[in-house]
């Protein structure tokens, strides 16, 4: 209880900041962009390209990234049986990333006199914050009394990918720092690939492997399967970043092995039927890893096909960002947030609603991108996708706030 009381403020800081970014530059801006492209709603200042670049970066670094950092700082020491990292270092990493992310909004004002300096500071602070996070995590994983497990390799390499992705994001800002209206598109794509696949997805897979046996009675996988899956996954990320052919095939093979290792589709190891909350969590795991496989399968199909598949890259990206990440965040987060804060459990109907909305949003977005944006049906589907995703976030945020309020009352 004393440790939870001491660590709760930092956990809440990361959680609150994550939801705040998602509710503004993340899901809200994404929904507005979809409504603009589908229904002709006017855009905020800055124009389409910088808004899209800011939205994608905010979702990865602000929403998912801060959530991964905050949860990681709490659970990784427990995985290792190690002391928690120094609070001042954790707080410093938060400040560096959060301030850097906020300063990146200068991208929207090309005529702002201080824009070059603000963007230079933005990129520098984010790289420093990502490097500090990686150093903290690697230090935690190197200590502790518990036996090392293969899932820690995913967590460690995921931490190392963070400063790499932040560096690519900094490189993307260089043209804007020198006066261009937007960030570099090629470097932006590289940063998205590294942050989404390397940093965030790797951490999600590592934590999934550790908690799935307890949460859904998933049978443990052999170390060989985990190592093989991680190796192929990282080979695919490296090939994607370097634009080497065959990267999607390696990613697909790695995703299939990791989905098998996590175990949501295999027979449960429980002797008794799973309770209702575990069945709900298992659904979230299944939806999440189905979207992971589907997303990289779309990329692989586009690479293997002799004919171009319109919208494949955007469809795959949203299968991963909306389907894979949001399903695991809203579903498994509903178990982790109460466990980390000591608050009341999420209400099952609210979790089901968040999962239904986010999977509907992902399905509409992926189908619309693959079908093309040329008619009224796809325009409406795109608009509904953005609204569903924002509604899913709202349900999750309200549920998390209820849990946090109960935790704070317990410490009063």
Question: Topology of this protein?
Answer:
Blueprint: H1 2-39, H2 48-80, H3 87-103, H4 115-142, H5 151-177, H6 185-216, H7 223-241, H8 247-262, H9 276-304, H10 312-341, H11 348-371, H12 376-411
* Topology pattern, helix = H, strand = E: HHHHHHHHHHHH
Residue share in β-strands: under 5%
What distance separates the N and C termini? 13 Å
CA gyration radius, whole angstroms: 20 Å
Mean pLDDT: 92
Description:
- It is a single chain.
- 80% of the residues lie in helices and 0% in strands.
- Helix 1 (2-39) packs antiparallel against helix 12 (376-411).
- The protein has helices at residues 2-39, 48-80, 87-103, 115-142, 151-177, 185-216, 223-241, 247-262, 276-304, 312-341, 348-371, 376-411.
- The chain has two domains: 1-208, no CATH class; 263-412, no CATH class.
- The protein is mainly α and 412 residues long.
- The relative contact order is 0.10.
- It starts with a helix and ends with a helix.
């Amino acid at each position: 209880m004393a440790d939870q009381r001491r660590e709760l403020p930092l956990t809440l800081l990361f959680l609150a900041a994550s939801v705040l970014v998602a509710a503004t530059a993340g899901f809200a801006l994404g929904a507005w962009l979809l409504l603009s492209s589908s229904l002709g709603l006017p855009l905020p200042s800055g124009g389409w390209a910088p808004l899209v670049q800011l939205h994608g970066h905010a979702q990865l670094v602000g929403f998912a990234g801060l959530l991964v950092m905050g949860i990681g700082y709490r659970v990784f020491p427990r995985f290792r049986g190690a002391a928690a990292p120094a609070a001042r270092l954790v707080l410093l990493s938060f400040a560096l990333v959060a301030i850097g992310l906020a300063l990146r909004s200068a991208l929207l004002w090309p005529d702002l006199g201080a824009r070059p300096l603000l963007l230079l500071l933005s990129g520098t602070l984010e790289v420093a914050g990502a490097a500090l996070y990686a150093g903290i995590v690697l230090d935690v994983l190197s200590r502790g009394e518990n036996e090392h497990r293969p899932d820690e390799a995913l967590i460690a390499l995921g931490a190392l990918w963070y400063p790499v992705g932040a560096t690519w994001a900094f490189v993307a800002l260089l043209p804007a720092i020198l006066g261009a209206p937007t960030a570099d598109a090629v470097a932006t794509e590289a940063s998205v690939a590294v942050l989404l696949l390397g940093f965030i997805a790797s951490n999600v897979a590592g934590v999934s492997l550790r908690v799935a046996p307890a949460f859904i009675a998933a049978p443990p996988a052999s170390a060989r399967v985990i190592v093989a899956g991680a190796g192929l996954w990282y080979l695919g990320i490296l090939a994607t970043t370097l634009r080497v052919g065959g990267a999607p095939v390696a990613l697909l093979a790695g995703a299939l092995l990791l989905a098998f290792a996590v175990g949501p589709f295999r027979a449960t190891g429980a002797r008794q039927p799973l309770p209702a909350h575990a069945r709900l969590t298992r659904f979230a795991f299944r939806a999440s890893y189905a979207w992971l496989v589907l997303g990289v399968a779309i990329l692989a199909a586009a690479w293997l096909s002799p004919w171009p598949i319109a919208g494949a890259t955007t469809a795959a990206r949203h299968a991963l960002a909306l389907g894979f990440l949001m399903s695991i965040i809203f579903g498994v987060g509903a178990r982790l947030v109460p466990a980390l804060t000591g608050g009341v459990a999420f209400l099952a109907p609210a979790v089901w609603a968040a999962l239904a909305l986010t999977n509907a949003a992902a399905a509409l977005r992926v189908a619309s991108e693959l079908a093309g944006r040329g008619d009224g049906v796809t325009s409406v589907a795109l608009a509904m996708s953005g609204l569903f995703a924002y509604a899913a976030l709202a349900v999750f945020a309200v549920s998390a706030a209820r849990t946090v309020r109960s935790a704070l009352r317990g410490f009063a």
